[in-house]
From TrEMBL:
Domain of life: Bacteria
Domain NADH:flavin oxidoreductase/NADH oxidase N-terminal: 4-336
GO molecular function per UniProt: FMN binding; oxidoreductase activity
Protein name: NADH oxidase
PANTHER family from the UniProt entry: BINDING OXIDOREDUCTASE, PUTATIVE (AFU_ORTHOLOGUE AFUA_2G08260)-RELATED (PTHR43656)
E.C. number: 1.-.-.-
Length: 407
């Protein structure tokens, strides 16, 4: 049997049927902040496509704090029936479905957040600075309220039928901001030492655990590092994983980067690119303290690289994202012997100035377009032109099409 098709047991007794993990992608397939039935169609396709774990795109905990205009938001049970439909579809075929729960902090575009909140009043820098307003620092009471909001979202997710949740503590969003010594310069118990900077994440986990049953999965997505001088480091990341494992976390997914340093491939050695697993070196460092299933997301495209990574023992599951927007049945193809590798397109307009400014946004919308096709019961269209996406963005959103969203 292909080692990617081997089951994996969690400490709470839940079994993941195979080692293929669909990482989170921003779906943005419907307007507004409700989990429209299109989500059920999309996740039903992925569940029937054979993945062991599916992770949703960001689900936010506050209608006033959005990473994108059309983020799904959970503050209460108002959309419980729609969430139940999503959960039923996404858990079909013995699939584990995790809702990714998040708060953007200061990574909320200008037109969505006139005054965003963050651990400290530190503005984003670099090329993205102009897209985001300077935040104000959260008060102690606001921090405690946010912890309750994360727990409430987890409670509602369980009630709706999701297998579990994933705490998004990566990519420069709020929890990642708390972890970073660059973005968190507080001098109270929520800042300073690593113990204090990780307090918000630990308290979110504890509140979620208290609000859900013992067999409900709680996972975390964490940066291996921020790739910024003076930022959250690999050594600190390993210590955070060790702490969370002791607390009882069920599963750890590793990624990296943030808005200010988003290109995880910058400076990556050719040998690492060929190996495909961008964070495998980190996995080898964290393995000794991570005694729960470890997922590495970033770079996997070939079955050979996936199988070799699992066989190494350095990780337990391989995380993929973009390939699922083009091949929703990718796992079934692997297990059926009809898949070897996939080159994921990097759609560009072919105009240097435009591509420099808008290339990443066009690409993100190109992949969201593929997911929207799947959510409509149609096949992905890998031949869709970047210009078609560009004009569709203009028509649908006007200037808002070019806000910086997602990392």
């Amino acid at each position: 049997m292909n080692n990617l098709n081997q089951p994996l047991s969690l400490k709470n007794g839940k079994v993941i049927k195979n080692r293929i993990f669909k990482g989170a992608m921003s779906e943005q397939i419907t307007k507004g902040n409700r989990p429209d039935l299109a989500y059920a169609e999309l996740y039903g396709a992925w569940a029937n496509g054979g993945a062991g774990v599916l992770v949703t795109g960001n689900v936010m905990v506050d209608y006033t704090a959005l990473g994108s205009a059309d983020d799904v938001v959970i503050e209460d049970e108002r959309d419980l029936d729609l969430l139940k439909a999503w959960a039923k579809a996404g858990t079909a075929n013995d699939t584990v479905l995790l809702m990714q729960i998040n708060h953007p902090g200061k990574q909320s575009p200008k037109d969505l957040s006139p005054v965003p909140v963050a651990p400290s009043s530190v503005a984003l820098g670099g090329a993205v600075a102009g897209f985001f307003n300077k935040p104000r620092a959260l008060s102690e009471n606001e921090i405690l309220d946010l912890i309750k909001r994360f727990a409430k979202a987890a409670h509602v997710a369980e009630k709706a039928g999701f297998s579990g949740v994933q705490i998004h503590a990566a990519h420069g969003y709020l929890i990642s901001q708390f972890l970073s010594p660059i973005h968190n310069v507080r001098d109270d118990k929520w800042g300073g030492s690593l113990e204090n900077r990780m307090r918000f994440l630990v308290e979110v986990y504890r509140a979620m655990r208290a609000a859900t049953s013992s067999d409900f999965i709680i996972a975390v997505k964490l940066n291996s590092a921020d790739f910024q001088k003076g930022g959250f480091s690999e050594e600190e990341s390993v210590q955070v994983v060790e702490c969370l494992v002791k607390e009882g976390i069920d599963l750890v997914e590793i990624s990296g980067g943030n808005y200010e340093a988003p290109a995880m491939l910058d400076g990556v050695k050719e040998s690492t690119k060929k190996r495909e697993a961008y964070f495998l070196d980190y996995a080898q460092k964290v393995r000794s303290v991570c005694t729960v299933p470890l997922v590495i997301t970033g770079g996997f495209r070939s079955q050979t690289a996936m199988s070799e990574a699992v066989a190494s023992g350095d990780l337990d599951m391989v995380g993929l994202a973009k390939p699922f927007a083009l091949l929703p049945d990718l796992p079934n193809r692997i297990f059926g012997g009809t898949y070897q590798t996939l080159t994921t397109p990097q759609p560009r307009l072919g105009v240097a100035k435009l591509d420099k400014m808008l290339g990443s946004m066009v690409e993100m919308n190109w992949y969201m377009h593929q997911m929207k096709l799947i959510s409509q019961g149609r096949q992905p269209n890998p031949n869709k032109s970047a210009w078609g996406i560009f004009f569709a963005m203009l028509v649908a959103q006007g200037k808002g099409a070019f806000r910086r969203e997602r990392a």
